[in-house]
Amino acid sequence: MRSPALAIAWEIWHRNRLGVVASLSVIGVAGLVNWLVGGNSRWTGLAEITGYVLLVLALFFTFGCFHFTEGRRKGGFGSFPFRLFNMPVATSRLVAFPMLYGSVAVLTVYLAGAWVIFIPLGKTQPLLWPCLYLVCGFTQFQMIIWSFPESRYLKLLCLSLAAAVIAMGWMFFLPHIIEGTLGELGYTGSPALFKRYLLIGLALTGPAAFGISLYRVHRQRHGVTLLPFSSFGEWISRSFLPHPKSFRSATRALFWHEWRQAGYVLPIGVGAILAMTCVPTYLSGPLTARATLGVLSWIFLSPLLLAAIIGRGFAKPDFWNQELNMTPFNAIRPLTSGQWVTAKLKVAAGSVLLTWGLLLYASFIWVTFAGDFAELDRMFRQLRFDYSPQEQWLLPVLAFSAVLILTWRFMVSGLAMGLSGRKRWYQFSNLLTAVVWVTLVAGIIWWSDHSDRNLHLDDVWQWITWLPLALGGAVIAKSILAAWVWYQVDQRQMLSRHSIYAYFGCWTLATGLLAGSVIVAFPHATWLRHLLILLALLVVPLAGPGIAMLALARNRSGS
User: Fold this and answer.
1) How many CA atoms lie less than 13 Å away from 225 in the CB half-sphere?
2) Whole-number Å distance between alpha carbons of 290 and 346
3) Which of 71, 121, 440, 456 is the most buried (most CB within 10 A)?
């Protein structure tokens, strides 16, 4: 290539051409389908939800394609390609070209989706602020992953803070949000003036991200580090969890190794969300009862959402490595695949406990100093009216246990796919998970916008009558699969029988806690209680850990 711009463009295109073509093709097919059903009011709502889901997934995929990084074993997930530092090209060009190409790609995907998908449905999407917002998010994303190549947890903390801002910031461009939520937070200015300031701020984030990225990449190119210690994660480990000089067993050493890799990821992410949520709302002044309940709902929902996202990376052999195959050094260690998976399960449990402990403490302090107890008091009085004194104490304990179990479930749900070493299976699993979550969120938003349409039980009863049969069949299939999987694990001596029995005991206890919370929460709705009990039998993984052990064994053998 005669030009560095063409060389970088060709490298990005050659690496991600199939994904880009697939994304644009999906948008084109969705636009064609919407053009065919645009005049049918019966399918317009479903087509609109599907369009939002596809557009969000395409944007996420574009962000992932144009990060322009290379993995480094000691440098964390993603750093600016060091091999380009030897090229006779100015650092400003090395930084500017990937950032410019990525911004153009993100804008192309959004504009294609806004015109091709929604115009046939008669929906006109805003253009100015979403384009500036996407460029802001993408440039901040690249700036963070380029700026801290040797600080994995510092990079993760910054990404969590940025994700928290981006996840909530788009709402403040909606007039009713400015007049409603900001009004409750104490803002009395003009919505138009507030939006104008936001647009100016978004327009300045791109140049600011370029300047910071240029400064950091320039220092890396000349061998200058940012921090006096090599890794922020190692500093956290040394400061807060000092380990002994020697481990009593190989399993303890393995647990410590896995904990240092991914044990702090979920607590740091939730801590960033707490900081971005609690501090601004506290500084803004006294909150209304409705705003207090809304902030608390977001706080308590964030661990579940982050666990579903972080669990995709936690499922890999190495959280910070993009490859799924185990390194030869780890593959030949004198540890069974069962011990590896057990260590991951324990690390996930410890991470969940630490996360929820931090969340409960921070939310209690925040509500005490910044919240309004009126809505919480109303809910408590309703709880006292609906439940007996024994159930009033038992229900919060069981509900908290259920939340812990669900968070842990999301953390370990992808172990079988991630440890298999099959990249296509892993990507398909991630895509399916993303589709489910985005569809769920889009459906909730769409239904809240059409809240005037009441849903009656008679409308969905014909579907409910099939649920016991479907859930019962799923429970039977899960039990049969679990029996075969654990038999294979025992025969191959991947795990001792004592450990297998211990996991079955933990599974029984967790399932009992879920079922108990359902029984206490719904004492009168018999049909709903029975359905949720069947669902509780499916929530806690029974065959999943065994499948992960067999998959990891195949991965270690290279088959």
Assistant:
1) 10
2) 38
3) 121
In this structure, the number of other CB atoms found within 10 A of the CB of residue 523 comes to: 12
Q: Six-digit token pair at 507?
A: 């599974």
Q: Distance between CA atoms of 206 and 229, rounded to whole angstroms?
A: 30
Closest by alpha carbon to 142, among 85, 62, 87? 62
Q: Tokens 């910031």, residue?
A: 169
CA distance 248 to 244: 9
Q: What does R_g of the chain's alpha carbons equal in angstroms? A: 25
Q: How many CA atoms lie within 13 A of 394 on its CB side?
A: 14
| CA distance from start to end of the chain | 39
- Please answer whether residues 272 and 161 qualify as being in contact, where contact means their C-beta atoms are separated by less than 8 angstroms: yes
Alpha carbon distances (Å) from 519 to 250, 390, 476, 512: 42, 13, 22, 10
Segment (H or E) for 76:
strand 76-79
Residues 42, 121: Cα–Cα separation, whole Å: 12
* DSSP line for 397-409: HHHHHHHHHHHHH
Q: Locate 315 and state its tokens.
A: 């499922």
Please check whether residue 485 is in contact with residue 546, taking contact to mean a CB–CB distance below 8 angstroms. yes
Q: What is the pLDDT of residues 424-454, one digit of tens each?
A: 888 788 778 777 777 776 666 556 555 555 5
State the amino acid at position 213 in one-letter form: S
Give the SS3 label for residue 9. Answer: helix
Instruction: Single out the residue of 70, 62, 143, 71 nearest to residue 105, CA to CA.
Output: 62
pTM to 2 decimal places: 0.71
Tokens of 176: 């009713």
- Residue 95's nearest CA partner among 218, 258, 271 is 218
**Domain segments of the chain as ranges:** 1-228
Q: Assign 3-state DSSP to the chain and report helix, strand, coil percentages, each to 5.
A: 80, 0, 20
Task: Provide the 3-class DSSP secondary structure of residue 169.
Answer: helix
Q: Write down how long the chain is.
A: 559
Q: Quick check: 433 and 312 in contact, CB under 8 A?
A: yes
What is the tens place of the pLDDT at every residue in 59-98? 888 887 787 876 544 444 567 887 788 888 888 888 888 8
**pLDDT band, very low/low/confident/very high, at 171 (cuts 50, 70, 90):** low
